[in-house]
Amino acid sequence: MGRLVMKFGGTSVADIDRIRNVARHVEREVKAGHQVAVVVSAMAGTTDRLVGWCRDAAPVHDAREYDAVVASGEQVTAGLLAITLQDIGIPARSWSGWQIPIRTDGVHGAARIAEIDAKELRKRMEQGQVAVIAGFQGLGPDKRVTTLGRGGSDTSAVAVAAALEARCDIYTDVDGVYTTDPRIVSKARKLSRISYEEMLEQASLGAKVLQTRSVELAMVYKVPLQVRSSFDPPDSLDQDRADGTGPGTLVCDEDEIVEQHVVSGIAYSRDEAKVSIRKVKDRPGVSASIFGPLAEADISVDMIVQNVSADGETANITFTLARKDLRKALEVLNRVKDKVGFLELTHSEDVAKVSVVGIGMRSHAGVAARMFKALADKGINIQAITTSEIKVSVLIDEAYTELAVRALHAAYGLEAAN
Ligand code: ADP
Ligand code: ASP
Ligand code: MG
Question: Could you give the CA distance from residue 20 to residue 247 in angstroms, rounded to a whole number?
Fold first, then answer.
């Protein structure tokens, strides 16, 4: 039946009963004849608690030690799942990132997987042993534990699947990928399939159902990826989705999707901040003098809006960035203030980005216009806009996030029929 990687997120392993439930999902696949590797997250709330402890210990702290602390959550789950599997008669062994090893680069806190040596895993799996792997963690070039950024267990799972030439099932607390976050829009519709490209956009624009890097890896290594629910009864799920129509959502190539929509989903992100620089000299080189130092400080800027101010000699530049980078960005800009020459620096964290995504946009006009009209009808002001081939994003007041998502979901006719 082939090799299979099953990944279970934090809510799915929140307590011992849920870990037992996970063990039964694994048992089902083992009994169906699969060689199984399982990737697990930390139990719900654990990573947040560990991150909080690091901050309490020292607001600014060593990234290597942060990784040493936060990686521990996944190790607990891996051991507990191995114990519950053994308890129901399934041979199982837990693995930390360094034991495999899952080698990463040295960017502590946001490491990227470089290489996985899957020889030993393969051997054990062929012998019928389930490999229970701690997600989110790897081994850096400095021989210290690294972590892959929040939500990184998805990426561990896809990378392990790529190394094992296996398919990958991501079990979470919803039963698939929806047209938008089903926790915000109750009428959101489950997609039976979504293309890698659209899923990649959705993830990078805030849909946290899959970590962006995991979708990237699945696309590059052609890993068949499915999102499904761990809360469906373990013995009622299809065991074989050879026809691609399993119970969840299949992330696949665009040409495997028959039913195409212009817009496939609405994503939102509250992880945004806005910086405005007032009265900068309107001359060549000014943007470079602002964004160069930000790039050197490893700060990614997203939307940029520039408008000439009333005096005709100066401009105002507004840009957005991840909220976690705001403080660092303000420090950098204050440092270069004299060199750039500007009057005032202001910032806001009360902003959110809302995006519509769909590969059909490539060939259909009017998608952005419909978005702007739907937002205008609700009285929502647009502060900045960016577009790509398959998405349009706007920056709005954070207070209107849910209203905007609901309005757009309705405007593009994405609701489930009742
Ligand atoms: P896990 O702990 O299993 O990794 P996450 O909380 O990271 O789970 O991701 C699952 C959550 O993603 C869901 O509970 C849902 O609220 C959210 N989500 C956001 N956008 C979507 C979407 N388009 N489809 C499905 N879930 C989404
Ligand atoms: N436990 C980590 C987090 O909460 C990784 C994951 O769950 O994917 O971000
Ligand atoms: Mg997640």
Answer: 21
